[in-house]
Design brief:
Layout (H helix, E strand, L loop, with lengths): L2 H11 L20 E5 L6 H17 L3 E5 L6 H8 L7 E6 H10 L7 H4 E11 L1 E5 L7 H10 L5 E4 L5 H13 L4 E4 L3 H9 L5 E4 L1 H9 L3 E6 L25 E9 L4 H15 L2 H9 L3 E2 L4 H22 L5
Parallel strand pairs: 1-2, 1-3, 6-7, 6-8
Antiparallel strand pairs: 3-10, 4-10, 4-11, 5-8, 5-9
Helix pairs in contact: 1-2, 4-12, 7-12
C-alpha cells in the first residue's frame, strides 16, 4: 500500500464518528467519544497522523475517537481551545514541533507555555526533514552547498511553507550554525516552494521525504542530507547534516498527544499505556514509516522535559532570526 492509498483509507475510516461533548469526566473512562483536536486544516501531516492514532485508540479503548480540526493562526486557535477545555480526558490534541516548541516564541500576542498549560501524555513519533537542492545546482554535498553560499552571499535562497513554519526554522538553524548568508522566501504551502525549487528560482528546501520523493525519483531534485542526529533507515545512504560538516546539527519533526492542564493522573496513565501498546505493534511502525516518521515511546514526564528543551532550542532560533508572527 502506498502513502496516498493509506492516507485515503485512513481519512475514510474515521469520517463516520459522531461529535458529542461533555465537560464532566465519568468513572469507567472512557464511556463516550473522545475528541482529538488537530490545530490545522484536514490533509496535512498532523491531521493524517492524528487520524491514524485516533483509529488505533478507538480499537484499544473501545470508544469512538472524533477528529476535530480547529485550524488557524498557525495552530494557536486549536491549541487554545484544548487549553480551555475540561481536563476530563475527552478533549485531547496532537501537538508537534511547530505548535508546541516554536509557537510559544513566535506569537508576540499569544505567549503560552505548553509544559504548564497542557498535560503531556506521550510523544508518539519523530522523523527528519531532508535538505534538497535542484539537480541543476552544481553541488553534490552539504559542504559544497555551504561553500557556494559563502562564495555568493545573499544570492542563495531557501523556500518554506510559510513565515514561522518548522521548515523555515529548520533552515534558519542551518543558516546560523554554518554562518552563511541565505535569503528566505515564504510560500503558501510546500507545493509551490517545490515547484520553484525544481526551476532553480530558489536553491534550498527542507522538507519531509514524502513530499520530495516524486521529484527525487524523477531526477529533478537532489537530496543532500537528513536533519536528524541519526541516519534515516529508509534512506541509509543519505548522511546526516552533522556528519556532512555541521557538527551538532539536529532538527526533527515530532508529534505527541496532550490534554488540558490538570488531566487526572489515572487518565494520563491509561492513555500513555494504551499508546505504548499501539506503537509496539510492528504493523503500526510500518505504516508510520510511510508517513516519514518512526514511533517514539516514553513517560509523560519525559515528553514534558523534551518539550522544555525544544522550546528553548527553537526560541533561540526565532530570536536569532528575529522572526515575529502577529
Amino acid at each position: 500500500m502506498d502513502r496516498r492509498q493509506f492516507c485515503t483509507q485512513l481519512l475514510a475510516g474515521t469520517a463516520s464518528c459522531v461529535l458529542i461533548r461533555s465537560s464532566v469526566a465519568a468513572p469507567g473512562y472512557p464511556d463516550r467519544p473522545i475528541h482529538l483536536v488537530v490545530p490545522f486544516a484536514p490533509g496535512g501531516s498532523n491531521d493524517i497522523i492524528a487520524r491514524f492514532i485516533g483509529e488505533q485508540l478507538n480499537q484499544h479503548l473501545k470508544a469512538p475517537v472524533v477528529i476535530e480540526n480547529k485550524g488557524g493562526a498557525g495552530g494557536i486557535i486549536g491549541t487554545d481551545y484544548v487549553m480551555k477545555s475540561e481536563p476530563d480526558g475527552y478533549t485531547l490534541m496532537i501537538g508537534a514541533t511547530s505548535t508546541m516548541a516554536a509557537n510559544p516564541s513566535l506569537y508576540a500576542s499569544k505567549k503560552f507555555d505548553p509544559t504548564k498549560e497542557l498535560s503531556a501524555i506521550m510523544q508518539i513519533a519523530s522523523g527528519p526533514f531532508v535538505l534538497a537542492v535542484p539537480s541543476s545546482l552544481p553541488v553534490k554535498s552539504v559542504g559544497e552547498l555551504i561553500a557556494l553560499a559563502k562564495q555568493k552571499p545573499g544570492e542563495i535562497h531557501f523556500g518554506s511553507s510559510g513565515l514561522g513554519s518548522s521548515l523555515q526554522l529548520t533552515a534558519e538553524l542551518f543558516k546560523s550554525m554554518t554562518k552563511i548568508d541565505i535569503g528566505h522566501v515564504p510560500y503558501r504551502g510546500l507545493g509551490p516552494a517545490l515547484i520553484d525549487l525544481v526551476a532553480n528560482r530558489i536553491q534550498i528546501v527542507f522538507s519531509d521525504m514524502a513530499g520530495l520523493l516524486p521529484y527525487i525519483q524523477s531526477g529533478k531534485l537532489r537530496p543532500l542530507a537528513v536533519t536528524s542526529s541519526k541516519r534515516w533507515p529508509t534512506f541509509p545512504e543519505l548522511p546526516t547534516i552533522a556528519e556532512a560538516g555541521v557538527p551538532g546539527y539536529d532538527a526533527t519533526s515530532w508529534y505527541g498527544i496532550l490534554g488540558p492542564a490538570k488531566l487526572p493522573p489515572d487518565i494520563t496513565a491509561l492513555l500513555n499505556t494504551t499508546l505504548r501498546k499501539i506503537l509496539a505493534e510492528p504493523a503500526i511502525k510500518e505504516k508510520l514509516e510511510l508517513l516519514g516518521v518512526l514511533p517514539v515511546v516514553g513517560s509523560p514526564e519525559e515528553f514534558n522535559d523534551y518539550m522544555k528543551k525544544e522550546i528553548k532550542k527553537w526560541g533561540d532560533v526565532v530570536a536569532t532570526a528575529n522572526i515575529q508572527v502577529q
